[in-house]
UniProtKB/TrEMBL annotation:
It is found in: Membrane. It is a multi-pass membrane protein. It comes from the Eukaryota. GO terms for molecular function: antiporter activity; xenobiotic transmembrane transporter activity. This is Protein DETOXIFICATION. The lineage of its organism: Eukaryota, Viridiplantae, Streptophyta, Embryophyta, Tracheophyta. GO terms for biological process: xenobiotic detoxification by transmembrane export across the plasma membrane. Keywords: Membrane, Transmembrane, Transmembrane helix.
Length: 446
């Protein structure tokens, strides 16, 4: 039988081209492809090996996510000691920024999970740099209209019925946060670029250094130099741009990126390729936005309650706590996405399926542990943000509701990571039963 015509890898979607080639292959090729078709239960040593690989990737990702997110948490903590109004305003502005900017950029950058992850698995290394540059260009352009929205935060919040005093102060905070919007988009692209290569350890010292410096800069600007809550916003901008600069220098000069980053290329400007990126980035962004908006909108809606300063402050503290803990399953989801994309790109769907089952097992364990920690410490956590007893007591009550929510959100994060890594639907049909399957198979092997 005549062999199928060879199809060269598409510069934008090497894995899709390989799958077309596989589907058009003759029957003689089935002997090779069948090597990956396996229905027997996973072995304990396979599960353990996959768990070690995911933890090796997820550990640095979790730490990095915690360090970067702590920039905003630390800023709100400092502002909280200025009084109830500055805390409410900073909380409102932070939530507004997340809803109208950060969540959108994060979601669009997540498309690189698929593009870069599968390109790396298919050994099309030069594509990673081109795809990352294209994503950077798109996100910077998207940030321009978002910056205009942030510049009018006070008017938008007031029009939405928020307290005029809080809206005015939140508008000032958001205005000083605008430079961080552009840095955040670039940062997400660099993160996905390195994550796709399983090269995440260099991010830790950079994030740790920037976070420690952020504490000092924030303290100086807020308390010593008299910038008050504006100083917290400025310190966020400085820290984000510092991380972007240091990561950019690492990517440019590190030998570990010499094959994946070969300099700026005109191919990143290809209009057709940009639309291909948007076709995946926009749905990814919608999924991320819906997830984040469900949290942040509560802070904005709290401003419509009878005591907006108290309600907004308490909800902001509670959701900051929930989001901080969420960095753990977010790291697991990122590791899962990378593992799934890499293995599918390398033509090993069986290993990708194993990665799904192991990640669901680990996120369930994490969810139970974190929920217990929230329940045990709910009466004390509020003191980190201030000494007002009314706020501390109210925060404790809300954290009891956050505990079960975190468990469910953790599973959702990993499932989102699976979808990002498996764009073409190879393993998603079995995702719903992943938790049951891994438990059942572990029981059978023991």
């Amino acid at each position: 039988m005549e062999a199928a015509e060879e199809i060269k890898p598409d510069i934008e979607a090497p894995l899709l081209s390989e799958r077309k080639n596989h589907n058009n292959s003759n029957v003689d090729d089935d002997d090779d492809s069948s090597k990956e078709i396996r229905t027997s239960p996973f072995k304990i040593d396979e599960i353990w090996e996959e768990m070690k690989q995911q933890l090796k990737l997820a550990g640095p990702l979790v730490t990095y996510n915690l360090l970067v997110f702590s920039l905003q948490v630390v800023s709100v903590m400092f502002v909280g000691h200025l009084g109830e109004l500055p805390l409410s305003a900073a909380s409102m502005a932070t939530s507004f920024a997340s809803v109208t900017g950060f969540s959108l950029l994060r979601g669009m950058a997540n498309a690189l999970d698929t593009f870069c992850g599968q390109s790396y698995g298919a050994k099309q290394y030069s594509l990673l740099g081109i795809q990352t540059q294209r994503a950077m260009l798109v996100l910077v352009l998207i940030s321009i209209p978002l910056a205009l929205v942030w510049a009018n935060t006070a008017q938008i919040l007031a029009f939405a019925g928020q307290d005029p005093e809080i809206s005015a102060e939140a508008g000032v905070y958001a205005l000083y946060m605008i430079p961080s919007l552009f840095a955040f988009g670039l940062l997400q692209c660099l993160l996905m670029f390195l994550q796709a290569q399983n090269n995440v350890f260099p991010m830790l010292p950079i994030a740790a250094f920037s976070t420690l410096l952020h504490i000092l800069v924030c303290w100086l600007l807020v308390f010593k130099l008299g910038f008050r809550h504006k100083g917290a916003a400025i310190s966020n901008c400085i820290s984000y741009w510092m991380i972007v600069t240091l990561l950019g220098l690492y990517v440019r000069f590190s030998t570990s990126c010499k094959e994946t980053w070969t300099g700026f290329s005109n191919k990143a400007l290809d209009i057709g390729a940009i639309f291909k990126f948007l076709r995946l980035a926009l749905p990814s962004s919608v999924m991320t936005c819906l997830e984040i908006w469900s949290f942040e909108m509560m802070v904005l809606l709290a401003g419509l309650l009878p005591n907006p300063k108290l309600e907004a402050s308490v909800l902001s503290i509670s959701l900051n706590t929930a989001t901080t803990l969420f960095m753990i399953p977010l790291g697991l989801g990122g590791a899962t996405s990378t593992r799934v994309a890499n293995e599918l790109g390398a033509g090993r769907p069986y290993v990708a399926r194993l990665a799904v089952l192991v990640s669901m097992l680990m996120v369930n364990i994490e969810g139970i542990s974190a929920a217990l920690a929230l329940i045990l410490g709910h009466n004390f956590w509020g003191y980190c943000y201030g000494n007002k007893q009314e706020v501390v007591k109210y925060v404790g009550q809300v954290l009891l509701l956050v505990a079960p929510s975190h468990f469910v959100d953790g599973m959702q994060s990993v499932l989102s990571g699976i979808v990002d890594g498996d764009y073409n639907g190879n393993i998603c049909p079995s995702v719903v039963s992943a938790n049951h399957n891994v438990t059942h198979r572990l029981g059978k092997r023991s």
